[in-house]
Specification:
By secondary structure, the protein is α/β, with parallel strands linked by helices. It has three domains: 91 residues, MurE/MurF, N-terminal domain (Udp-n-acetylmuramoylalanyl-d-glutamate--2,6- Diaminopimelate Ligase, Chain: A, domain 1); 148 residues, Hexapeptide repeat proteins (UDP N-Acetylglucosamine Acyltransferase, domain 1, 3 Solenoid), CATH 2.160.10; 29 residues. Helix content is 16%, strand content 28%. It contains five helices and 39 strands. The strands form seven sheets. Strands 8-11-14-17-20-25-28-31-34-37 form a ten-stranded parallel beta sheet, with no helix packed on it.
C-alpha cells in the first residue's frame, strides 16, 4: 500500500509543508522511520531534532514555527492533533482483522438466546442461558458468558475473558484478555471466631464506549450494581471492588485499586498504582498521582499525591524534604545536646 502525503493530509485536515507528492508506504517511530514512512512529533525533545529523523514525513502541531528551516529534509504535515491523526494513519496501514461473523460448532450455547446480526462466537466459547448479544458482537476463543448477560452491539471480548451472570455491557465496548467481570466482592462478616461469606446478589453495568484492559477484576455489587460509566478507559491489572461507580470518560491506569462503594467522578485520572479507600468520593476532574493513597475524599478538580494524599504542590515540597530528614535528625540531636549543656552550665 502506498499513499501520497497530499492524500494523507486531506484525510486528516492537515497542511503540507514540502513535497506533497511523496509516497508513503508505512508508519514508524520517530527514531526508526525510513524515507518511505511517516511519523509524528509533539514534544520539544522530538521537534528540536527534526533534522535528525530519516522519516519521509512528520506530523507536527499547527503552531510549529520552524517549518522553513533549511536543515529539514522531511516533509511536514501540520495538524491540530498530531498523535491522534498519526494513529488514524496507522490504522490505514494496519487495519484490524475482520472477524468471521460465524458461530463455531465448538462453542457451547445455552437456551433462550437472543442473538443479533453477524455475531462472532469462536471455538471454546461458553454462552449461558437467557443471554442477549447485539449486532456484530465478537466473542473470541475461551470467553465465558454467564446466564442473563446482555452485551450491546459492536462489542468485542478478547480471549479468556469471564463475564459472570447478570452483567450488562453496552455498545462498542472492548474487553481485553484475562479480565473477570462480575466476580464476588470481598465481603465477609465475623462469626464464631471466623469469617462468614456474604452473598453478592448484585451485578456489573458497563456503559457504551468503555475499554477494559487485560487482567482487570470488576466485582459485582453486593446488592446493587458496580457501574462503569460511558467512555471510561482502564489499563491492565486494575481492581474495581463491589458497588464502585466510575463517572464518564475517567482514566484508570495500571495497578490501581478502588475499594468498595467508592465513587469516582467524571473525567478523573487515577494514575498508576494509586489506591482509593472504600466509601470515599473523588470529584469530577480530579487527578490522583502515581502510587498515591486516597484516605479522604478528593474535591472536584483537585490534584493530589502522596500517602496519605495531599495537594500536589504541597507533596512536591514534602518530597524535597524527605531525603534531607536524616541530616535534619543529626542537626536536631546536636542542637538538643548543645542546649542541654547550656542549661547545665547555667545551673552550675
Amino acid at each position: 500500500m502506498k499513499i501520497t502525503i497530499n492524500d494523507l493530509a486531506k484525510n486528516i485536515g492537515g497542511e503540507v509543508i514540502g513535497d506533497g507528492a511523496l509516497e508513503i508506504s508505512g508508519v514508524s517511530s520517530f527514531d526508526d522511520a525510513n524515507a518511505d514512512e511517516i511519523t509524528f512529533a509533539v514534544d520539544p525533545k522530538f521537534l528540536n531534532r527534526l533534522n535528525e529523523t530519516r522519516a519521509g514525513a512528520v506530523i507536527v502541531p499547527l503552531d510549529f514555527q520552524d517549518a522553513g528551516s533549511a536543515n529539514l529534509t522531511c516533509t511536514l504535515v501540520k495538524s491540530e492533533n498530531p498523535k491522534l491523526h498519526f494513529f488514524r494513519i496507522v490504522s490505514k496501514f494496519h487495519p484490524p482483522k475482520e472477524p468471521d461473523r460465524t458461530i463455531s460448532p465448538m462453542a457451547s450455547m445455552g437456551r433462550n438466546l437472543d442473538l443479533g446480526k453477524d455475531v462472532t462466537i469462536a471455538p471454546n466459547v461458553t454462552v449461558g442461558d437467557n443471554v442477549t448479544l447485539g449486532d456484530r458482537v465478537c466473542l473470541m476463543p475461551g470467553v465465558y458468558v454467564g446466564d442473563n448477560v446482555v452485551i450491546g452491539s459492536d462489542t468485542t471480548i478478547k480471549p479468556n475473558v469471564t463475564v459472570m451472570e447478570k452483567t450488562r455491557i453496552g455498545r462498542r465496548v472492548l474487553i481485553h484478555s484475562g479480565t473477570v467481570i462480575g466476580s464476588d466482592g470481598f465481603g465477609f462478616t465475623p462469626n464464631q471466631g471466623g469469617h462468614e461469606k456474604l452473598i453478592h446478589a448484585g451485578f456489573v453495568r458497563i456503559d457504551d464506549d468503555v475499554e477494559i484492559g487485560a487482567c482487570n477484576t470488576i466485582d459485582r455489587g453486593t446488592l446493587g450494581l458496580t457501574w462503569i460509566g460511558k467512555g471510561v478507559k482502564t489499563d491492565n491489572l486494575v481492581h474495581i471492588a463491589h458497588n464502585v461507580t466510575i463517572g464518564e470518560n475517567s482514566l484508570i491506569v495500571a495497578q490501581v485499586g478502588i475499594a468498595g462503594s467508592a465513587a469516582i467522578g467524571k473525567n478523573v485520572i487515577l494514575a498508576g498504582k494509586s489506591a482509593v479507600s472504600g466509601h470515599l468520593t473523588v470529584g469530577d476532574g480530579a487527578i490522583v498521582g502515581p502510587g498515591a493513597g486516597v484516605l479522604s475524599s478528593v474535591p472536584p478538580g483537585e490534584i493530589v499525591s502522596g500517602l496519605p494524599t495531599m495537594p500536589h504542590k504541597l507533596w512536591l515540597k514534602v518530597g524535597k524534604i524527605l531525603p534531607r530528614l536524616p541530616d535534619f535528625r543529626k542537626r536536631l540531636s546536636a542542637l538538643e545536646k548543645r542546649v542541654e549543656r547550656q542549661e547545665t552550665d547555667k545551673r552550675d
